[in-house]
Amino acid sequence: VRHAESLGVLINVAVTDTGGNLISFLRMPGAFPQSIDIAIDKAYTSGGFGFPTKQWMSIFGDNEGMKFGFSARPRLVVFGGGLPIRAQGQLIGGIGVSGASEEQDAECARAQAQGLDARKFLAAHDSYGVFSALGDLVVTGPTRTNVNDYRAILVS
User: Fold this and answer.
1) What is the mean pLDDT of residues 69-80?
2) Which of these ranges, 34-38, 104-108, 148-152, has the smallest mean pLDDT?
3) Which ranges in the chain belong to alpha helices (H)?
4) In which region does residue 100 sit, left (phi positive, over 0), alpha (psi from -120 to 50) or beta (all else)?
5) Among 54, 63, 144, 156, which residue carries the largest CB count within 10 Å?
6) HSE of 17 in the Cβ direction (CA atoms, 13 Å)?
7) Hey, CA dihedral for 50, 70, 15, 11, is it positive or negative?
8) Which residues pair with 82 in a beta bridge?
9) Pairing of strands 22-27, 82-87
10) 107-154 pLDDT, tens per residue?
């Protein structure tokens, strides 16, 4: 989020586990609401497959069937802004950013992933909703379908 502020852009940031379950979400005030699901789906894609969303097209190469087939799959994103998250060499999830240009989304995802505390990421879920951390922010919320109920709490 700090990197987005330095770029003068407003973004949505999502973190998922490897199964695509939303762990954390943050929407900067004024960020495009249409980008909420895109950020979540970028995290879902990179966290499940273990490589950046921008790499999809190069992985497909000249295989048009794979390009069309995968890009038509719901929730799979084939452009930049999603990165895998690893702890001690193991894939533990993904981070997705949406709301700016593809390059700016990817920059913000890299900056956020570098600041992510993997121990907090792996913290247990409480009985009222999902709990995790995005840098200095702890983000809580009930479900993916009720994104507007997410609250960001500063950790001191």
Assistant:
1) 88
2) 148-152
3) 2-7, 35-49, 56-60, 64-71, 102-115, 118-121
4) beta
5) 54
6) 12
7) positive
8) 96
9) unpaired
10) 999 998 877 665 555 553 333 333 344 444 444 443 344 444 333 332
Look at residues 130, 98, 94, 78 and name the one whose alpha carbon lies nearest to residue 18.
94
pTM given for the model: 0.75
Each as own residue / partner, the long-range contacts of residues 121-127 (CB below 8 Å, 24 or more positions apart, any chain) are: 121/15, 121/23, 121/85, 121/87, 121/92, 121/93, 122/87, 122/92
Whether the Cβ atoms of residue 102 and residue 81 lie closer than 8 Å to each other: yes
3-state secondary structure of 22: strand
Residue 50 one-letter amino acid? G
Taking the CA atoms of 65, 42, 9 and 116 in sequence, report the sign of the dihedral they define: negative
